Predict the structure.
Amino acid sequence: MTLSELKAATGLDLWRFQLDNPTILGWTVVAFYEMAALACARAAVLRRRIGDTSPWWILAAGLCFLGINKQANLQTLLIVIGRHLSETGGWYEDRRTIQLIFSAVFALGLGVILIWLAFKYRGFFKLNRFAFWGVVVLGLFVGMRAATIDHVDEFLKINLKDEKWAWVLEITGSVLIGLGAIRHEATGGGA
């Protein structure tokens, strides 16, 4: 199978990489994500020096991914693939039900992952309240964003498409995590 045949078979021929938020605000959000990711990476290196493992690397990777996704808009790729599968699978008419199910499973999965991380690293988050609340805020943002992608907000008759809430949550979450990492570094890794 050639690359063009693979693209056509999966619906990838309907999507192309492009910058999604090439505005000052979009790049500002990316900068906050990446600065917080760097702060987390520095905290992880400091933590490794004292022979401890902590979720700083996980936080750094997650923030880095969110910053890249802010411009790459990878969720649109997921939408294109889903739309293509629904059309070729013959269940396009039932797409809203499938989207609602997907959103519920996604939200449940996200919640399970966040709860698992909170319990697995409870000592870490007890000492790093800023990082904890930053993760909560970004988890809320990701969950709400997924609801708008799948049109669940329309189904529930609430307006989540207003981008004002999105950048406030994104910047607040990344700043909280970044402050937690900086505080951690300032205290020598003890907090």
Residues 24-49 form the longest helix (26 residues). Residues 3-186 form one domain.
